[in-house]
Design goal:
The chain is α/β, with parallel strands linked by helices. It has a single domain, classed as Alpha-Beta Barrel (TIM Barrel). It contains 11 helices and 17 strands. Strands 2-5-6-7-8-9-10-11 form an 8-stranded parallel sheet, sandwiched between helices. A hairpin with a 5-residue loop joins strand 12 and strand 13. Helix 1 crosses helix 2 and helix 2 packs parallel to helix 4. The protein is globular.
């Protein structure tokens, strides 16, 4: 038996690219951003934070400039991209924790660099992911959050004490909790348990079914839902593209499988996320056993409140059948 319902427009706080447009290429143009916007909107995402990852100051600045240019090109893009997420460059340099971020561009927190990027963005940087174990991080977090930017802990191997100190200084979020970590961690304590157990930290998580096993999704859900869990796609440029083998889109030769899993060609190693926020919602429904309105809060009310953004003006129509939702239509402006 199927039913229909409506929800506010969805918000994805971490999108690196979509529908063939790479927001970190330094070449993305308004047409590419529009393709990304339209493809996400068709799946319920009416607002998203284009995410600029670790790079040179000039390279990150160019990516920020192109986001600002795209927003200025149309009211639809302006409304759909209400803020920018900087994921780096102030992250861990350690293998595993660093993920795919270029080692040569990782650096300790630099307030002048951040302020330069914020100025280029016209104040749009609303979220910054960093590793608080760097010397000078605590004062940096306090000053950045005092100016209105939310700080998240991510790509980090910070100690238990440093995580507590970072939260005391103003950090309020864990970025893609359970990922951005080495394959092997100390049994306990470790950064995953410490962030799960910290009640003052909300958590974003990639519930695409590839980045986290069901057991970990259930643990994160039980620890952070209902008021502190944010679902994100962390999508790269190949999200929304047909299955196949690609080269040059996200670095190296990769294969996008029909399941939505994106791997390095010829291996099972993940090459990023090519899934949609809709996949995350459906996996959250599956592992939590909750009803749709309860899970939709993780892509509407919770992230908007975390970032200090107004409620969405758009409406998403959903069909619910067999424990899964599909998007039937979207109306309204972002």
């Amino acid at each position: 038996m199927s039913r229909t319902l409506t929800t506010p427009g969805w918000l994805d706080i971490q999108v690196n690219g979509y529908a063939g447009t790479d927001f970190n290429s330094g070449t993305a143009d308004p047409d590419g951003f529009e393709r990304a916007r339209a493809a996400q909107r068709s799946l319920g995402v009416t607002r998203f934070l284009p995410t600029v990852i670790t790079g040179t100051q000039a390279g990150m600045g160019e990516c920020v400039r192109r986001i600002v240019e795209a927003r200025a090109s149309s009211p639809e893009l302006d409304a759909a991209m209400p803020a920018i997420h900087l994921e780096g460059p102030f992250i861990s340099a350690e293998d595993g924790a660093r993920g795919a971020h270029p080692l040569e561009c990782v650096r300790p927190p630099d307030l002048t660099l951040f302020e330069d990027l914020q100025a280029l963005a016209g104040g749009l940087v609303r979220l910054l992911t960093l590793a608080p174990e760097h010397e000078g991080s605590l004062d940096f977090i306090a000053r950045v959050t005092a100016a209105g930017t939310r700080v998240a802990i991510g790509h980090s191997l910070a100690s238990s004490q440093r995580i507590r100190e970072a939260v005391d200084a103003g950090a309020t979020l864990s970025t893609h909790l359970g990922n951005g970590l080495p394959n092997s961690l100390r049994r306990h304590p470790n950064p995953l348990f410490d962030q799960l157990a910290e009640p003052r930290l909300s958590a974003s998580a990639i519930f695409d079914g590839h980045h986290l096993p069901d057991s970990v999704m259930r643990v994160i859900h039980r620890m952070k839902a209902p008021d502190s869990l944010v679902l994100t796609s962390d999508a790269v440029a190949l999200a929304g593209m047909p299955a196949g083998v690609y080269e040059g889109q996200v670095g190296g030769k990769v294969e996008l499988h029909a399941s939505g899993r994106l791997t390095m060609y010829g291996s099972d190693y993940l090459a990023g996320s090519a899934s949609s926020l809709l996949d995350g919602v459906n996996n959250a429904l599956r592992v939590s056993g909750l009803d749709v309105p309860e899970v939709v809060r993780y892509v509407t009310e919770v992230p908007a409140r975390l970032l200090g953004l107004p409620p969405s003006g758009a409406t998403v129509g959903l069909a619910v059948a067999g424990g899964k939702v599909t998007v039937t239509g979207v109306t309204g402006q972002a």
